[in-house]
Specification:
Keywords: ATP-binding, Cell inner membrane, Cell membrane, Ion transport, Iron, Iron transport, Membrane, Nucleotide-binding, Translocase, Transport. GO terms for molecular function: ABC-type quaternary ammonium compound transporting activity; ATP binding. This protein is an alpha+beta fold and about 325 residues long. It contains 8 helices and 19 strands. The strands form 4 sheets. The chain has a 6-stranded mixed sheet, sandwiched between helices. Helix 2 runs parallel beside helix 4. Bound molecules: adenosine-5'-triphosphate.
Length: about 325
């Protein structure tokens, strides 16, 4: 169980990367860190892990200070009760799956306890019979499960995932997102999940922290960030947006084609294209100075049309 608090945390390399950042990450939930490339997601994760040292500020795990620049306090990574899972799995190729997992824990446990713990961890990720294989004998998804088992075997309070699923194909990704979510809940862990994929963040996270240029734009539940973004950057980052004017917009799923004279706010438009997307058509419409995307069940030929929007779903910022 661990809630994380950062206060006035800054880190610079050639220039500032994390700037006077204040953030609380709730305990026993999955928090996704999202943001454009270079916004500081991995750096923030490494500051929490202790792999990178902040220039200033304080970090607490629960009420326990683990970093304080003013007091020269810096708890080493090994004492932070956390595990990390990376995109490239980071497994030793010359060790079996069992040895890879045991390597992280064997110094603290007896031989019998260690074997039991490895078997338990492999069972958690549905790889009970894979202990004697080498990483090269496993698929990418299985290798990432081993990395997850290795993390669980250390019985951490906190697991940090750095783009952990980015190398996997979409179907496998979906499965592992579900598995990670279930394991985090079952073991009452706190998890921080860095991803550049907003769909993944929406699917896996209870809370999302959106970063831009080393600062928190919005830290909120996934639903609030999507439905009530604080500004245009947050609104655009979290999903496609149809601009009504400079300060209002609506998501594609809340725009409908209607007969002229329908109730509610109506917008005239000119259909440009309809693109097949599998479960819907992405219909592109010129609306005044803006191009709108509509989710339609059927394709449409170029024509003049009228649209209405769900007024309760209009985003204002
Ligand atoms: N060790 C380092 N030395 C110098 N600059 C660094 C170092 N680590 C990160 N940076 C710089 O800090 C900035 C933020 O990098 P970071 O990896 O945290 O961003 P990110 O949001 O995780 O990006 P991406 O999504 O592309 O992985 C980048 O401009 C990067 O070049």
């Amino acid at each position: 169980m661990v809630a994380i608090k950062l206060q006035h945390v800054s880190k610079s390399y050639q220039g500032p990367v994390i700037e006077d950042l204040n953030l609380t990450i709730p305990t026993q939930q999955i928090t996704a860190l999202v943001g454009p490339s270079g916004s500081g997601k991995s750096t923030l994760l490494n500051l929490i892990a202790g792999l990178t040292t902040p220039d200033s500020g304080q970090i607490w795990f629960d009420e326990q200070p683990i970093f304080d620049a003013d007091q020269s306090l810096n708890c080493p990574p090994a004492k932070r009760q956390l595990a990390m899972v990376f995109q490239d799995f980071a497994l030793w190729p010359h060790m079996t799956v069992h040895q890879n997992i045991a390597f992280a824990i064997e110094t603290h446990l007896s031989k019998a306890e260690c074997r039991k713990r490895v078997e338990w961890a492999l069972a958690q990720v549905s790889l009970a019979d894979y202990g004697q294989r080498y990483p090269r004998e496993l698929s990418g998804g299985q290798q990432q499960r081993v990395a997850l088992a290795r993390a669980l075997a250390t019985q951490p309070d906190l697991i940090l995932f750095d783009e952990a699923l980015s190398a996997l194909d979409p179907q496998l990704r979906l499965q592992l997102q579900q598995d990670i979510s279930a394991l985090v809940k079952a073991h009452h862990l706190t998890a921080i999940f860095v991803t550049h994929d907003r769909q993944e963040a929406l699917r896996i996270a209870d809370n999302i922290v959106l970063l831009h240029a080393g600062q928190v734009v919005q830290s909120d539940t996934a639903a609030n960030l999507y439905q009530h973004p604080r500004n245009q950057f947050a609104a655009r980052f979290m999903g496609p947006l149809n601009q009504i004017d400079d300060h209002t917009a609506v998501r594609p799923e809340h725009v409908h084609l209607v007969e002229q004279g329908a109730d509610g706010p109506c917008y005239p438009g000119q259909i440009l294209t309809s693109t097949f997307m599998g479960d819907h058509y992405d219909t592109l419409v010129q609306m005044a100075d803006y191009q709108w995307h509509l989710k339609t069940a059927l394709p449409y030929a170029p024509a003049t049309i009228t649209m209405t929007v769900d007024s309760s779903a209009i985003l204002t910022y």
